[in-house]
Amino acid sequence: MQVDGIAYRTIWPAADGRAVEIIDQTKLPHRFETVRLETVDAAAHAIRAMLVRGAPLIGATAAYGLWLALRSDPSDVGLDAAAEKLVATRPTAINLRWAVDAVVQEVRPRDTGARAEAAFAKAGAISDEDVAINRAIGEHGLELFKRAYAEKGGQGPLNVLTHCNAGWLATVDWGTALAPIYMAHDAGIPVHVWVDETRPRNQGAALTSWELGRHGVPHKVIVDNTGGLLMQRGLVDLCITGTDRTSANGDVCNKIGTYLKALAAQDNGVPFYVALPGPTIDWTLDDGTRIPIEERDRREVTHLTGQTDDGRIETVRVTPPDAEAANYGFDVTPARLVTGLITERGVAAASHAGLAGLYPERACTAAE
């Protein structure tokens, strides 16, 4: 995607071949800065501290993190230690373990002298595959958007509500839930996006709004509790979100607050779609309630960071000093509330049969 006329991915090999570079998403939307990752510890920190976030991008970063680790220690001990370190950074997103396992399987049979090069190539392949997957998700989602706009009779914009950030900043490029939005906008469909702020880290207000603004997509940022009112008043034509892990029965685990949007959508007859790449499906789980839910630092709830009118970046407390806080990062939306799952292979019903129909080879392997 474009930033001030320059094409970027969210992660790319450094020109000197000794590191990878990323966009520091903790500085957005106020500053656009890139960071150089030279060690596996730096990659792990980038994932844990959310310099990178979004399930697909976390996976790509972890894959490159293994390359960085193997450059200094290509032994079996070094490989296993690096893999364990990276997997431990974020427990919810399945892409992280998927990408780490893919690189480990690729390099373990090789001589130690060839492991780093093989890991680099595999990380690059994972990144390129993510771009292709997300482009395909966008194309399948575009057909749904065209249909929804046609059903509206071309009266006014197509009003879309999204939660958190599932755009190109959450992937290597294009995004999942935002990919159809970009493609619809580029195809001339008048799209307007309601952007949930997505407390406590405000990925919607900070990242989704920044992305859409750079692409010229009309949008408004709303507080998280506004979606139900908008749906009641007929101001939302469809909802679309991403997901960090989808169980085999079609339950989706996404940023905290997604479940409440799905409930409001069902109550008001608004279609609720979830866009996901195939690697986000956890075929080992038939029940989304078994997905581990990450609990993050309570300071994300008790404090807010923003830019003052004179340009300073400040962090302030919004609760009493002695207030306790709980910070659950995700919730699970039951498959019964999901209108359809938009994947790189097409749109599926949110069910085991629906997913197995698109991914028969993976469903069969899981069953064994």
UniProtKB/TrEMBL annotation:
Sequence positions that bind substrate: R53, G54, A55, R90, Q203, N254, K255
A GO MF label: S-methyl-5-thioribose-1-phosphate isomerase activity
Catalytic machinery residues: D244
Keyword Amino-acid biosynthesis appears in the UniProt entry: yes
Reactions listed under catalytic activity: 5-(methylsulfanyl)-alpha-D-ribose 1-phosphate = 5-(methylsulfanyl)-D-ribulose 1-phosphate; 5-deoxy-alpha-D-ribose 1-phosphate = 5-deoxy-D-ribulose 1-phosphate
Enzyme Commission number(s) from the entry: 5.3.1.23
Pathway: Amino-acid biosynthesis; L-methionine biosynthesis via salvage pathway; L-methionine from S-methyl-5-thio-alpha-D-ribose 1-phosphate: step 1/6
Source organism, top-level taxon: Bacteria
Keywords: Amino-acid biosynthesis, Isomerase, Methionine biosynthesis
Site positions per UniProt: Transition state stabilizer: C164
One example of a Gene Ontology biological process annotation: L-methionine salvage from methylthioadenosine
Pfam family of the protein (one): IF-2B
Keyword Transmembrane helix listed: no
Physiological role: Catalyzes the interconversion of methylthioribose-1-phosphate (MTR-1-P) into methylthioribulose-1-phosphate (MTRu-1-P). Also catalyzes the interconversion of 5-deoxyribose 1-phosphate and 5-deoxyribulose 1-phosphate. Part of a bifunctional DHAP-shunt salvage pathway for SAM by-products.
Residue ranges crossing the lipid bilayer per the database entry: none
UniProt family annotation: Belongs to the EIF-2B alpha/beta/delta subunits family. MtnA subfamily.
Protein name, as recorded: Methylthioribose-1-phosphate isomerase
Class of enzymatic activity (EC top level): isomerase
UniProt organism field: Rhodovibrio salinarum
